[in-house]
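We store sequence, tokenised fold; for instance:
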Amino acid sequence: MEASYGYGGAPMAPPAPLAVVSPQFCAPYVVPLTVTKRPLSISDGDFTVTDANGGVVLRVNGAVFSVRHRRVLVDAAGQPILTMTEKVFSLHNRWEVFRGDSTNANDLLFTAKKASIVQLKTAVDVFMAGNTSEHVCDFKIRGNYFEKTCAFYLGNSDTMIAQTNRKYTFTNVLIEKDTFTITVFPHVDYVFIAALVVILDEIHRVRFDSFDLL
């Protein structure tokens, strides 16, 4: 997968800030994040997102006794930023993302779903709330999520805005912890990208859950 690069090999920023959630989450430089997924617990969320210094930036609440098809992304202080819900019985594993802790249609920000029902590699299309026809995606994700290698693109183009790679360590395997890195390009909403990573994991976890039922 090829990205657009400027002088000196640095990622080329989009022509304007991509503030899907909020402009405050768009930095004028590359934002490196680490996403850690732990076994589900009662007190903590499924995911913890940390910055380059190890500080907690985001968490995803997903307690054992919560509704399985609903995830809430909160900031370091525990304030809800986004609510992600899966459409039940959707063949494309369609997820809808709302502002704050709302699931009201007026607060819908974007929708993400598999580009096709049967996939050998990862292909997810993202549509903003105003794109009701969904003829052309506003963003897309392509790659191989089982190897935790995916790229995020602007629209149906080759302009890369972020990428993720799996981080293998002996400790991670030993304690059943899943860790991967995200590189968010300049002026791109890092909360938006983090939410898409959570949705990717949920989509592929559903596939494994289906195998468990056979």
Notes: The CA atoms of residues 26 and 189 lie 5 Å apart. The longest helix spans residues 190-212. The radius of gyration is 16 Å. The first strand starts at residue 31 and ends at 37.
